[in-house]
Write a structure and sequence with these properties.
The two termini are about 30 Å apart. The protein is of the alpha+beta class. The strands form 2 sheets. The protein has a 3-stranded antiparallel sheet with strand order 1-2-5. The protein is about 40% helix and about 15% strand. It has 6 helices and 5 strands. β3 and β4 form a beta hairpin.
Length: about 130
């Protein structure tokens, strides 16, 4: 494979999306995988740090709604719910949010098997630039 330039990386359209039927809501919604920045913000929102910076506890309040809100977009790929509007989404049917959350996790690489698959696909970099000798 060819070595990519910064411009090629930034130009790549690598975000996956999927339209999911939600009969309970009378239609379908579009879910798009989170960017790295969005994913880090989501994961950070689930952790409460103590005064010394260590993890004090997990904040699971509205965690499904947070995830789905970060991934649910309109046809122009603009988010339907901001971080401030998560509670409104969290008031919806929990089974629907769970179903949508599973798709959002898959698209964002958050499932355990996605992380393991990514780790298995990475190959060590040859160390031909070693200065020992």
């Amino acid at each position: 494979m060819a070595l990519l330039s910064r411009a090629a990386i930034e130009a790549a359209d690598d975000r996956k999306w999927e339209d999911v039927d939600v009969p309970e809501w009378g239609g379908s919604v579009r879910l798009m995988g989170m960017s790295g920045t969005e994913r880090n913000a989501y994961q950070s929102s689930l952790v409460v740090l103590g005064p010394n910076g260590s993890v004090q506890k997990m904040n699971m309040a509205d965690q499904l709604a947070k995830l789905v809100a970060k991934c649910m977009v309109d046809e122009d790929f603009e988010r339907l719910y901001s971080d401030k509007e998560v509670r409104a989404l969290g008031a919806k049917n929990g089974a629907v949010l769970e179903r949508l959350g599973q798709v959002a996790q898959r698209l964002s690489g958050l499932r355990k098997e996605d992380v393991e698959a990514a780790e298995g696909k990475s190959e060590p970099t040859p160390s031909d630039a070693s200065t020992t000798g």
